[in-house]
């Protein structure tokens, strides 16, 4: 694609220069449109990757403030990155749309309700204690959800209530900075991201990861000082807040790397993993952080990548049929395709993949709150495709997808680490109770 950015602007603005290079790689072939969930649903070129690229080019090239039209179409983008998997020219849409979202945030004044909701999400979701309190409040408000749903202006509030669990789980006994020694000879030492929303919504995921990894000789550390990876605010264009989160985590992990050494930084929420693997790019212009951030990104691993290095074998009778739902952040964001399925197969499960596996389930961070109509259509489409697999349970590697899809069909949804932990001797995950999987106590029978 030809561009005509003023050279003097490119010379002083590295972010603009990077976006210009991305724009130049697009040959407007349109292959990406066919695999873009919003184009598939809405059929509008401006809701396709190519259409958004044109809108972003026009805005950045002309150094224009974002218009309501640009904000609408970029807001509808899920950042699912399916377009990056499809694109034959290697267009780095993620960095381009991240830049566009930050530009929109700086130059466009959203309607009051939109601003207020975004500010609320940014001030609550990344902070576990605030989020826990908010979920308890949402639990009290749930009985009113039916009434609220009748008021179109409150549809996003209704969407939030629908996503809140009926009961907020107790804090994990493993919470907080500490080390979990490897069983037997230690083969690796890793940090496990505790993060923010997942540890409140489903602490069982990381509890299972700790049992699983230590069982296979991996020492696991909860590093002091780490927290939200920054992706929730990053996808809302709140650049400074996301960079502050990135710097805090880089500092925390760097202290641990330098004091005791780390073989990997393991992430059980693939949306966070995609962002942590991008810290090196996000902080490339910060002389104090660029090298440390690049080192952290190079050490970041989705838990399925670590499982691929372990001699997994079932410790109980398995053989059940499991549908594998590939989160966008894992299959498109991190280009991890085979490792989760290979882990399931090594553990004796039959693996089914739903049709249209490349399409997003509609979760996408805060998307299911901010764009509830599109998110619900995508959820229902995904849930129907998963149900058609005939599986007994569904595994995913991202808390957002699990929260989005649970209840959308009759199947139990759980994280890969929970099922792998059970298969190798751990307790029965709560999601599988009553679905024909034996409890830990039955394992020896
Ligand atoms: S597939 Fe790639 S090169 Fe083709 S229009 Fe889409 S982004 Fe541009
Ligand atoms: S990130 Fe997803 S929703 Fe956004 S343009 Fe690409 S394919 Fe479409």
TrEMBL record:
Keywords recorded for this protein, A-Z: 4Fe-4S, Electron transport, Iron, Iron-sulfur, Metal-binding, Oxidoreductase, Repeat, Transport
Chain ranges of the 4Fe-4S ferredoxin-type domain: 14-46, 68-97
Reaction equations catalysed: glycolate + A = glyoxylate + AH2; (R)-lactate + A = pyruvate + AH2
Extent of the signal sequence: none
PROSITE patterns: 4FE4S_FER_1 (PS00198), 4FE4S_FER_2 (PS51379)
EC number of the protein: 1.1.99.14
Enzyme superclass (EC): oxidoreductase
Cofactors: [4Fe-4S] cluster
Domain of life: Bacteria
An example molecular function term from Gene Ontology annotations: glycolate dehydrogenase activity
Entry note: cofactor: Binds 2 [4Fe-4S] clusters.
Keyword Methyltransferase assigned: no
Known role: Component of a complex that catalyzes the oxidation of glycolate to glyoxylate.
PANTHER family: GLYCOLATE OXIDASE IRON-SULFUR SUBUNIT (PTHR32479)
NCBIfam families tied to this protein: PRK11274.1
Identification of the protein by name: Glycolate oxidase iron-sulfur subunit
Lineage: Bacteria, Pseudomonadati, Pseudomonadota, Alphaproteobacteria, Hyphomicrobiales
